[in-house]
Request: fold
Amino acid sequence: MKKITLLICVCVSIVFSTQAQNIQQNGSVYGSKSVATQTSVSLEQLLERLALAEDKNGIDWQQFTNYERQIIKAHFNSQNAANRGPQATLLTEEFDDITTMPGAGFTFVNASDVPGSTDWFQGNDGVFPSQSGAPTAYIGANFNNTGGSVINNFMITPELNLENGDEIIFWTRSVAGSAFPDRLEVRISPDGSNVDPAGPADVGSYTELLLEINPTLVAGGYPEVWTQFTVPITGLTGATDTRVAFRYWVTDGGPTGNNSDYIGIDSLSIEEGTGGGGGCAIVSDCNLVDSTPDDATSPDVWDRPFANGTCCSGLGPVSYDVYGPFTVDVTGLYTVDSDQDGGAWDGYIFLYENCFDPLDQTTNFVAGDDDGPGGVGTSQILDVTLNAGTEYYLITTGFGAGDFGDFTNTITGVGTVTCGGPVLTYDDCAGAIAVSCGDSVVGETITATDSGGNSAPDVFYK
Reply:
């Protein structure tokens, strides 16, 4: 399952602003569609309110505005940036001077119904400053991209050799509290033909949609603070020389429309993935008896979800331990029990399938539990269906910040649990794979056991 990882950058010392909109256009054609009156609120103030709003059932988010919720979650999510491993960079663009971009291979295609007075432009720090670098070091687009009502404006990267699993990473935001919704798509040309769009509804050859931000054009649906998106590339048949397109696409937009205001994009990079989209880049082990680290010093922290997989608790950051990948040899019901050092600390357990990403807490979620039959200090996922051959990850974590320590986990059910990779069906003579003269087969013995009496892992063909 593909992932989209969201991360918001924030500094504790920054003072944020909540904004109420007056519907009148900014004086500059490169401005926002509306101007705002601002009242300041600090992160420290929001965290004090958060402490009063949290209990065992989580956070009453109705006490906070959408903009305030983004700021609060930024505080927790930003601490997880260290979880990403190093990757080879294929492209980087900081938008310090966008006039140099065409020379670097970028193209800009405004296929709006009536091209307006602006295209993609250097960021306007009068609307908001950049995510990093000089205040204007980002690229912007706004409602004036059309003189009509449909914006269809493309920013297209240079041609790159890409494959499934490579990742597009960028930051974006709109105007805080805007009454005029924005929308952004990230697309790729799957065959590498790189045909430009030719009309207000056309996408050219960029037919593979990788990400759509605020697809239904809801007010407040576009990030109102700088927000990082990590988008895995899909839809390619192999390594392909192709381009990535950012599509600012808003209907009922323009100077007189109900939608479209102002967006910025910053700190773009495209990085090599794990190859073909496979693998799971997470540090894990096969220890059911272990301990979670001190969340005050460990880089392995997250904002955990609730037991039903919805995001997120806000009671963190909390540390975690990952057991897996593990598989079962028989499809059926299994139970996971956890004892947190005889009840010495308040733990939580979660099951994920295929992969676990602490920055994408809802993707691949299977099940979770807080307090088991033994009360606080125990957890139990009862009678969950696990499928033979599917890789699973068991996450042991704390209820909230400061909850960590030793634990003992058990997994019981209708079959046998094997940690470290999938169970090989041809690991013994009874499961031997039939081959004929001239056949070519590919296999491995890394996860096999010794069944042939030669003191080495082996697999069987017949």
